[in-house]
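PT: before anyone asks, these are the final sequences, not the draft ones from last week. 689 residues across everything. Please model them as a single complex and drop the result in this thread when it's through.
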Amino acid sequence: MRNLLPFISSHPGGRSALTCRFRCGDACFKETPNTSDNEYAGDIIAGAVSRRSMMRAAAVVTVATAAGTAALTGPSAPQAEAVALAGHGHQPGHPHKPAPSGARGLRFSPVAPNKDDKVTIPDGYAQNVVIRWGEPILRGAPAFNPDKQTAKAQAGQFGYNNDFLSLLPLRGERGRQVMVANHEYTDEILMFRGYDPANPTREQVEIAWAAHGLSVVVVQEENRTGKLGPVNRHPLNRRLTATSEFRMTGPAAGSTLLRTSADRSGRKVLGTLNNCAGGTTPWGTTLHGEENFNQYFANGTTDMHKRYGIGTSATERKWERFDRRFDLAKEPNEANRFGWVVELDPYDPDSTPRKRTALGRFKHEAAQPRLTSDGRPVVYMGDDEKFDYLYKFVSSKRMKKGNSRAAREHNLTLLDEGTLYVAKLSGDSPVTEIDGSGKLPDDGEFDGSGVWIPLATGTTSHVPGMTADEVYVYTRLAGDKVGATKMDRPEDVEPSPRTGRVYVALTNNSDRGKAGKPGADEANPRNSNKHGQILELAENWDDPTSDGFAWRLFLVAGDPDDPATYFAGFPKESVSPISCPDNVAFDAHGNLWISTDGNALGSHDGLFGVATHGDRRGELKQFLTVPAGAETCGPVIQDRRVLVAVQHPGEIDGASVEKPASVWPDGPGKIVRPSVVAVWRKDGRDIGV
Ligand code: FEO
Ligand code: CA
Ligand code: CA
Ligand code: CA
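LR: through. Structure below.
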């Protein structure tokens, strides 16, 4: 451990500058791309829609209340015994501690905040590393050797910086599941010994291309434990990289805005980039958001390049030196072919994954569908940038059940036809009561109503002055024009499979309330927002065309001792501190699990569970923490297993291969490797019961 660097954070928030540099192209240090003054335009365009919609929103709440489903009723008062639980200072391992209490599924002793260079899990649980960066998964791929990396080897090995994870069933193969993983970005300084950022070699660049993208890898569980390991060379195993073939589909496919000199059709794209989070569809495919794609493109020239955060000079990784398509001065449309939601059919290793233009183009964090009562998928999506927007897509088609070839082919068209919407939220408290401090308004809640403003349906644009192609390719501009609400970095969005309520992680926004920037509003109620919040929406699942919703803040994150925090009204002395909610997932009990990115409270990032209904609604408990410099990603919560992606371990300012800031997962002297971790209960019982 001697070579470990002290924890330094030069970023506003808990993230290291090294993470900013490689992950999002230093977005926080650059001008916020949304400089639109969209309120005025919004009032004109949305005005007619919104009065009707507000009335409908009110109706939705009433109807849903009567049905006892999606309405936002107040949290039930926590019962006295709920408060008896150990607080966030509780240390696991006390010999006389009572059995952990909590909501069903969350009965574990919370992990205390810490800075240990390991994955810390609750008492009575066990863990294993499922797969590491560089482990071979395809036939012919060699074992990982950090000093003999090649692009060819990497293309058959598990990629770098695992993020989103999905586990899908694999029928007929006992104890096996199909795992799909995103590989968001590469950190060359932590990958290559002696890396020279000013002069990357062609081989290093090609390794980075191969380390991006997606992995499909079949995993096998060990008898009677939750332990998982990869099945090398399984026929479903697959790598998709920055140079694999993808097809553009949906209403904007073939648009002139998507054509380049290498692809006159505007339908065939090489690669997927910066796949952050994603989603798993009810029809057995996976969705993958292309997030900070802007950072890979050099020499941006247009206003639209700027609106998407694309710089005007060379890039950090210098890919433009090795492939002209990354130089927008030469190929101005190439960047338009990134920033989409990708759909992959992991059961068909020969299928070409599709970029779904109907879901719009922005910095897609994730895409999680839920079906309406009549079987149409609704996909929720956040645009992860300060002051950018929250979207949803509603398909005009119904999912076909079953696994027949016809059903599967039909379901692969669901995300090509429908309506794309952006959210506008209004608070119900007087604006004078929203003072930017996080103090609750007099009605006791940050809440209100909202409207989904339609942007385009198929080839019909609903945005004056923009064609449908423009709406899909320049979706941010469409949001500006209709007056969408500028949010605090909308990340993952997850509809509850049980209640239908929709949860939106808003990570943070250090610029909220700064001079010349939007100030606090009821949905984004803190200026210089360091810790983020989670928004809860009530949707009308019985009417896919309904455009109104009710909303409230479910959590306002931070140290519970900080008066500017809120945990759905649950007693704060009984919850874990949390900062920067990012990815979210549900367990079978209806608890929301939240992973964090950039903890600004001084602890390492982690994974938390919180009850969303019942007496313990708002009781938040920390389940694990990750090693130094890492972020917690991709949580999957199964009955007997929790799966997390430990992303960018050791990514701390000043670290390199030679001077590691973490020794995870393999100990001193071994290169730090982003890896997937499985956690299960030693007694074999379900998680948290
Ligand atoms: Fe890749 Fe929005 O985090
Ligand atoms: Ca992430
Ligand atoms: Ca209110
Ligand atoms: Ca994220």
